[in-house]
Amino acid sequence: MLDYLLDDIPVRGRKARAVSAEVVRELDETDLGVLVAEEKGSTPSPIKRISERHHALARQLAAGTTVSEAALICGYDISRVSILQADPTFKELVEFYRQDITRETRGLHERMYGLSMEAAAVLSERLEEESEKISVGQLIEVLKMGADRTGFGPQSTSTNLNVNVDLANRLEEARKRVKERRYAPVIEGDKNG
């Protein structure tokens, strides 16, 4: 009914052209097999140059940041991050940073283990040779820490306590008392009235 008005409204882009089609032949099962086997959709062009933003995004994803957070942090659209994740070059970059993080974590773990073993050896040596220089309080702290780290530390339990103070009824009674006092008859000579 209003189609004639739509033709007069200016729109952006090119004007639509008339589409024509003709049947060349009927489709059969072999055509369906060809359709299923062929790649569909468009494939994005591979990354030509890896920028600092690509590196930053790869580091975020390798560290376990969600796609939406990484996109926000690095200034990408979520759909662009999805496209980049399908790119072999970008996949390789993320894997590089993932291995780098694993290597750093392993190195830190090894250093902490070494320091702990060294401290335990020094402490053990001092206990044997200079036990009188170590106070009872220090020994108890070492014992607590060792027990805690090996699963024999103190257990904590939590208790939930629900107290029903019937606040609504108490408030209602207080309002009644105030109302009664407000409208109570005033007796002459009463100091409160």
Question: How are the SSEs placed, and which strands pair?
Answer:
Layout: H1 3-6, H2 29-37, H3 52-62, H4 67-74, H5 78-86, H6 88-129, H7 136-149, H8 167-182
Helix pairs in contact: 3-4, 3-6, 4-5
Short structural summary:
The chain has 193 residues and is mainly α. The chain has helices spanning 3-6, 29-37, 52-62, 67-74, 78-86, 88-129, 136-149, 167-182.
Protein described:
- The mean pLDDT is 81.
- This protein has 193 residues and is mostly helical.
- The protein has a domain at 52-149.
- Helix 3 (52-62) runs antiparallel to helix 4 (67-74) and helix 4 (67-74) crosses helix 5.
- The chain is 59% helix and 0% strand.
- The protein has eight helices and no strands.
The total count of helices amounts to 8
N-C termini distance? 82 Å
**In terms of structural class, how would the helical and strand content be classed?**
mainly alpha
Task: Spell out the helices and strands N to C.
Answer: HHHHHHHH
pLDDT average, as an integer?
A: 81
Task: Provide the gyration radius in Å.
Answer: 39 Å
Task: Give the uncertain stretches in residue-range form.
Answer: none
Q: Compute the number of strand runs.
A: 0
What composes the largest sheet? Answer: none
So what's the overall shape? flat
What is the helical fraction, as a range of percent? 55-70%
Proportion of beta-strand residues = under 5%
List the keywords:
193 residues
